[in-house]
């Protein structure tokens, strides 16, 4: 039985034999009862505003335009999020990390308070090491 329709009574419809056979074969193919198959078909046409009398060409073009508009809308939303949320947040985080970094001290390689005539000892040693 069809869920939700157990208590409804049956009605008969008069349709041509070839159409009835084709419809029954389709119902078996999708594993639904004849009532549910017909109901699904009617709802499909109503929901999608499609008439079996008109061509699908114009409706498919309309559907394609609608999908493109929605995709463009999603892209615009993502760009807005990136511009107004992601980039400012990244900039703020980077500035916080720059302030939190320990300041690097310069290495002392030679004494700066030696007498003008006096040469530091380590320079002489380096010259000797380079000459050999």
UniProtKB/TrEMBL annotation:
<feature type="region of interest" description="Disordered">
    <location>
        <begin position="109"/>
        <end position="132"/>
    </location>
</feature>
<dbReference type="InterPro" id="IPR048012">
    <property type="entry name" value="BfmA-like_N"/>
</dbReference>
<protein>
    <submittedName>
        <fullName>BfmA/BtgA family mobilization protein</fullName>
    </submittedName>
</protein>
């Amino acid at each position: 039985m069809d869920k939700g329709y157990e208590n409804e009574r049956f009605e008969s419809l008069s349709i041509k034999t070839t159409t009835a056979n084709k419809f029954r074969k389709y119902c078996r193919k999708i594993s639904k009862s004849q009532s549910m198959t017909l109901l699904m078909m009617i709802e499909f046409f109503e929901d999608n505003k499609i008439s079996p009398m008109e061509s699908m060409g114009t409706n498919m073009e309309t559907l394609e335009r609608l999908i493109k508009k929605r995709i463009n809308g999603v892209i615009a939303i993502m760009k807005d999020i990136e511009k107004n949320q992601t980039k400012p947040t990244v900039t703020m985080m980077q500035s916080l990390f720059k302030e939190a970094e320990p300041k690097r001290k310069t290495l002392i390689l030679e004494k700066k308070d030696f007498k003008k005539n006096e040469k530091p000892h380590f320079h002489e040693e380096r010259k000797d090491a380079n000459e050999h």
